[in-house]
Amino acid sequence: MKRIYAHKIREDIAEIKAGEEVYLNGVIYTARDAAHKKIFEIINKNIPLPFDIKDSVIYYAGPTPEPKINPQNVVVGSCGPTTSKRMDIYTPKLLELGLACTVGKGERNPEVCEAMKKYGAVYLCAVGGAGAIYSGCIKSIKTIAFEELGCESVKELAVEDFPVYMAVDILGNSIFKGI
Question: How far, in Å, CA of 81 to CA of 47, rounded?
């Protein structure tokens, strides 16, 4: 499998085609529905975001706290993907602002796929139901915004060999077409 790195995401995604399996590495951010709503309130007020959106990766997930009984020494509990379609109303604007990659589960609407093509961004699919496996790929976690949202706050994750599939590539090709 190919490895891609968040710090050079634009370069790494250029040659990867829809359907290819990759390992994601580096610093990424979590944001679900409630966080997206707050991010857009900030954007609409022209206030700087709590993280640099340009060339970043957003994982649609709400990590649970580190387990009390922790024989694997994980830094977080379950951290599986949520359904990406719920963020489709926000995604084109975030791509316009420089977002390079989103990670979640399920298909995206045609407008999001077109915006990905237009802005040279991609969508990676994580496997639903694999949250415990994904937690083992997370090496550090830090809440960076909207702490009041609990597991839906924006978190900075350092991930290592986080297994995903290229679902929508920079040409707009999607693994979901024809399904």
Answer: 28
